Every structure is written in C-alpha cells, then in structure tokens.
Amino acid sequence: MKRGKSDNWSMGSRKKLTAIDYVLFAILLLFAITIIVPFWNVLTVSFSTQKEATETPLMLFPSDPTLENYRYLFNDGKFVVGFKNTIVLLLVGVPLALFLTTTMGYALSKRYFPGRKLILYLVTFTMIFNGGIVPTYLVLRQLGLIGSLWAVVFTNCFSVFNLILMINYFQTIPPALIESATLDGAGEGRTIVSIIIPLSKPILATITLFYGVGFWNQWYDSMIFIRQANKLPLQNVLRSLIQNTEIVTTATSSLAALGQSQYSDGIKMAAVILTMIPVVCFFPLLQKHFTKGIMVGSIK
C-alpha cells in the first residue's frame, strides 16, 4: 500500500535532530544571550539610581526604580529642540534622498541611456575617493549653507551604495511592462509613478530604512557645519548632555552628590534608550520588505 503525502510529511516532521543541530542551537542561543543581556542591562540602569548602578554592574532588575534620568532629559529644553531638528531632517532629507536615488537609479538602469557607463564610473569612483571635509565645508560656505540644517541634508541625501541597489532592482523588472506603458502613451514620469514605484516597494522600503537610520544617527556633519545650539539635531544634544554629566561626575567626590539625579551612568543609558526607540519601532514596519529588497537589489 502506497503512503500518502500526509504520511511522508509526518515522517519528515518527526526527523530526529542530529548532534550538529544541537551545536548550532547552542551557538545561536549564546549569541542571543550576548545581545539581549547587555540591552536589558542598559534598560535597567536607565531606571536605577547611581548608587545601585555602581554597586551592581550587571543589573537585571532595579530595586528602587526611578524616572529621574528620563525626567532630566525631557526637562532640558535642548533635548526637545534637538528632537524637533532631527524630525525636520527626516521629513526633508529622506524624501529628497528617495527622489534623487529613485530617479537616477531608473535612468541608469536603462542600457540605452546616453553616457550611462561614464556616469556609473564617475559615481562609483566617489565610493573610493572623495574631496574630504575641507572642500565640502568651503563649497557649503560659498553657498551660504553653513549653520543651516540644509548643509546636513545636502551632504547626506545621496548614497552610491543605495543607488547601486536601486539600479540592480530596476533591472529585474520585465522590460515588457515598460514597453506596454510606452505603447499606451505613458511618458517616463507616468511610467515611474504608475508601474516602477508600485513594483519597487521592497527596495524602496530598504532604502528608506537606510536613509532614515542615517539621518537619525547624524551627528558628525552637524558638529562640523552647525554651531548654533538651537539648530543641532538630537544626537549632538545627547552628546553634549553626556559630556556635561561626565564633567559633573568627575568634579564631584561627595557620595551625597552621587546620589542626585544628575549623574553620568543613568543619563547615558536613558539617552541610549531614547535614541533606539524610534528605530526599533520603525524597523518592524519595513521588515517584510527589507530582506527581499536587499537580496534582489544586491544579487547582481
């Protein structure tokens, strides 16, 4: 009597685990612990007092939870201003970066585009060699952008790596779809909006995540091009707060003073948590498109 498909599936599902399976499981479990435990320790220290954090370097649960560290950050007006500036960077920089990368990627994905190879060579050349920070500063100063958030936007709104991913993904779209749109009278703009963008959700989600995280974590260019405190993004504000608390902690030797809310360890950990929350919340929304986009865009 022949076995059915259900019998074959049940036999396959009851396949015994080998020794190598247990070894791999143990290795993955170890890696998971090395990631989860430090993160949990950062979270608990952000809710603890300085005395408890000093006495218990590896803390699983704070015995006396407190919100003073977060209250200190939110009560500081610089933190709120920095958060608003970062939101402005995201709302302006990410759409501009997507527009530039998508349009240029679509044009360079066409093999008949005039000067395509030369442009690709020139763009790829910038991945290895660039003018440096001094020429960039001089150019932005001549344009009158020093001290403005536009200086940070324009220096981070284009990535050659993301462009290459976009070009490779566009080349996987069947040319027959574009040809049929052309025969129906659609121009290049209508083709991009009606056909290319709906079919490119995975790569667009991937590129959006890359640019979003880049603008959210931006601090170096802001430190170079912006001097006004009311225009600094969040990362620079948090860096300044941590440096100030380091100075206070170093200059203070009294145990009573160490018990106050303005101490270094708690503010550091609270700053880390506040910085991570938006990215951690944003990533799951794009996760289902992320793997497909990065694989299809980079397979060539």
Please outline the helices and strands:
Blueprint: H1 5-13, H2 19-46, H3 50-55, H4 68-75, H5 77-108, H6 116-128, H7 133-142, H8 149-156, H9 160-170, H10 175-183, H11 188-199, H12 201-216, H13 220-225, H14 234-251, H15 255-258, H16 264-298
Helix pairs in contact: 2-16, 4-16, 5-8, 5-9, 5-12, 5-14, 9-12, 9-16, 10-11, 12-16, 14-16
> Low-confidence parts lasting 5 or more residues at pLDDT below 50?
253-262
User: Which fold name corresponds to the CATH topology of the largest domain?
Assistant: MetI-like fold
Number of helical segments with 4 or more residues: 16
Number of domains: 2
Order of helices and strands: HHHHHHHHHHHHHHHH
Biggest sheet record: none
**Percent range for helical residues?**
over 70%
Beginning-to-end CA distance, first to last residue? 48 Å
Shape: globular
Q: What is the CATH top level name of the largest domain?
A: Mainly Alpha
- Beta-strand share of residues: under 5%
Computed Rg: 26 Å
CATH architecture of the largest domain: Orthogonal Bundle
Described by its quaternary structure, the protein is single chain
Q: Give the rounded overall mean pLDDT.
A: 80
Q: Any idea what the CATH superfamily of the largest domain is called?
A: MetI-like
How many beta-strand elements? Answer: 0
Structural classification:
mainly alpha
